[in-house]
Write a structure and sequence with these properties.
Helices cover 39% and strands 19% of the residues. It starts with a helix and ends with a helix. Helix 10 (248-258) links the parallel strand 11 and strand 12 (264-270). The strands form 2 sheets. The chain has a 7-stranded mixed β-sheet, with helices on both faces. Strands 7-9-8-11-12 form a 5-stranded mixed β-sheet, sandwiched between helices. The chain is α/β, with parallel strands linked by helices. It folds into 2 domains: 2-156, Rossmann fold (3-Layer(aba) Sandwich); 176-309, Rossmann fold, CATH 3.40.50.
Length: 310
């Protein structure tokens, strides 16, 4: 996804001379498409994320649209105060690009696991958070928000797994629904949409009709869409490569509680810090129950429990 996002950023910059790109000494073999095409609009500030946000704030205040690129954990937490007191406080169009949500950097250990980025950033009302499900949606989101006069955080995956049925659809503050069913809604964050679609297909073979609900934006958060969707199913399963607190699981819980919906919620995500463990994204997804097979098993258990409650 990150390569496709960089290619789309070049296209955006071709038509908008305000677009500049800053990196924290990262993006090699990814950002050359931009740096080679626009060498005077590309800045490697080194491993100095706070300074990078400070520079971006000055550039945005001077009329530019700076994109700030780094690993998601580094760019969401190290310069948090700079982002809050700069871009967010002053409504500046800085685009923070956090690469590697969830376990994308699995072999690098917990310092590189982005399991809280959406949670800590969506609490800032003045910051739009966008977590595309695949490269097609990332491209659509980039162009759809090109003129948004407020800061944005893009959560961009390293690799891409196209989501069947999504077809690049994106609308700010809206969900995208895949499939048709009234037994279960699998509500997803980011790249968890792909395994969720696989899980829904398996569940359909067993007589459990599920829809997949992709939630790509927060602030604006698709509250009305979620109320409408969750109001039509007895059971919701959230799936995210993120802590269960703060991300889409929390958003769905808030919607159910605040609107009095008769929908039971089961949250799939990470519940504790993965201390002393590393490995591939696939390996870590298996450990924390985030594979398509895990979603199927969790949905089956939840559906059986739901029937017993009736």
């Amino acid at each position: 996804m990150r390569n496709e996002f960089a290619d789309a950023l070049v296209e955006l910059a071709e038509n908008d001379p305000r677009v500049v790109l800053l990196t924290g000494d990262l993006g090699f073999m990814v950002l050359e498409c931009f740096s080679d095409r626009f060498p005077d609009r590309f800045f490697n500030v080194g491993v100095a994320e706070q300074n990078m946000l400070g520079i971006a704030t000055g550039l945005a205040d001077s009329g530019y649209v700076p994109f700030v690129y780094s690993i998601a954990t580094f760019v969401s937490m190290r310069p948090y105060e700079f982002l809050r007191n700069g871009a967010i406080l002053h409504d500046l169009p800085i685009r923070v690009v956090g690469v590697g949500g969830g376990f994308d950097y699995g072999h690098n250990g917990v310092t590189h696991f982005a399991l809280e980025d959406v949670g800590i950033l969506r609490v800032q009302p003045g910051l739009t958070v966008i977590a595309p499900a695949d490269a097609g949606q990332a491209r659509s989101a980039l162009f759809a928000t090109a003129d948004l006069a407020r800061p944005i955080y893009f959560r961009v995956a390293r690799e891409d797994a196209p989501v069947p049925g999504l077809d690049g659809r994106f609308a700010l503050g809206r969900v995208q629904v895949i499939g048709d069913g009234d037994d279960l809604a699998i509500v997803t964050l980011g790249t968890m949409a792909a395994p969720a679609v696989v899980a829904a297909d398996v569940l359909a073979e067993e007589g459990i009709n599920a829809i997949v609900v992709v939630v790509p934006t927060f602030n604006p958060t698709p509250i009305e869409d979620l109320v409408d969707t969750l109001g039509r199913v007895p059971l919701a399963l959230t799936a995210e490569a993120h802590y269960v607190t703060g991300g889409v699981g929390s958003v769905v819980a808030e919607v159910i509680a605040e609107h009095g919906l008769h929908c039971r919620l089961v949250r799939c995500g990470v519940t504790e810090m993965p201390k002393g463990i590393s490995g591939s994204q696939e390996y870590l997804s298996e450990i924390y129950g985030l594979t398509a097979q895990d979603l199927v098993r969790t949905a089956q258990r939840a559906a059986r429990s739901q029937l017993q409650r009736r």
